[in-house]
């Protein structure tokens, strides 16, 4: 059975979510207050609807409470985002992901009970900054204010040594959760696994420990 989602707000962020979910085989109801935006996704989404999501009766008439996951991707209109989130929580939507514009907006959404809050511009800024800061960091995903997952490519300075030789957890306080090697991925690699040049280490830990690890071993 296909998973079903509602995406509210069809700007660049919301629209990309609709397209990707459809590509991954999900059913998606796409909603926006602007008819021209809805028209763009009429042939992409499972169902595309023009609606004012700050109107509770409009949401109820669409059967929103029957969907397991609603994504609020409303852009600049913070008031509409907050009112929509409030209504969705009140009518009992099981899971709610909301886009936040800033830290104040994020805090309000937390108080309203949003299950997951994303800040795409900020998150992308963090990823780009970390990528350009180091030639070895390929990707960077923030988990919390202080902890992240990073992809670090191995060069000749580390290649040929095992995880236990490098003593990574004890020395640097981070964990290698996987190793990407060419087309394969090794989950929870063994301590005696030899690290090869070109491997991509997927590590998890505090931001300071990840940067310390990358700086000490790859510079």
Automatic annotation (TrEMBL):
InterPro entries for the chain: NAD(P)-bd_dom_sf (IPR036291), RCK_C (IPR006037), RCK_C_sf (IPR036721), RCK_N (IPR003148), Trk_Ktr_HKT_K-transport (IPR050721)
Gene Ontology molecular-function annotations: monoatomic cation transmembrane transporter activity
UniProt cross-references to Gene3D superfamilies, sorted A to Z: NAD(P)-binding Rossmann-like Domain, Regulator of K+ conductance, C-terminal domain
PROSITE patterns per record: RCK_C, RCK_N
GO biological process, alphabetically ordered: potassium ion transport
Residues in RCK N-terminal domain copies: 2-118
RCK C-terminal domain span: 135-219
Protein name (database record): Ktr system potassium uptake protein A
């Amino acid at each position: 059975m296909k998973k079903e989602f509602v995406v509210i707000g069809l700007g660049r962020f919301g629209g990309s979510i609709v397209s990707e979910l459809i590509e991954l085989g999900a059913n998606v109801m796409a909603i926006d207050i602007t008819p021209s935006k809805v028209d763009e996704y009429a042939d992409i989404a499972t169902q595309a609807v023009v609606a004012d999501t700050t109107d509770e009766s409009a949401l109820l008439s669409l059967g929103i409470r029957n969907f397991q996951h609603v994504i609020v991707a409303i852009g600049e209109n913070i008031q509409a985002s907050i009112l929509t989130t409030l209504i969705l929580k009140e009518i009992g939507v099981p899971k709610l992901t909301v886009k936040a514009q800033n830290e104040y907006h994020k805090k309000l959404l937390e108080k309203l009970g949003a299950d997951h809050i994303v800040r795409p511009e900020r998150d992308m800024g963090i990823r780009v900054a970390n990528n350009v800061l180091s030639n070895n960091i390929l990707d960077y995903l923030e988990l919390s204010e202080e902890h992240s997952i990073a992809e670090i490519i191995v060069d000749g300075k580390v290649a040929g040594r095992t995880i236990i030789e490098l003593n990574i957890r004890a020395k640097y306080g981070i964990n290698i959760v996987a190793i990407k090697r060419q087309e394969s991925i090794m989950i929870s690699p063994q301590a005696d696994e030899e690290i090869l040049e070109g491997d991509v280490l997927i590590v998890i830990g505090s931001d300071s420990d990840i940067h310390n690890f990358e700086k000490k071993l790859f510079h």
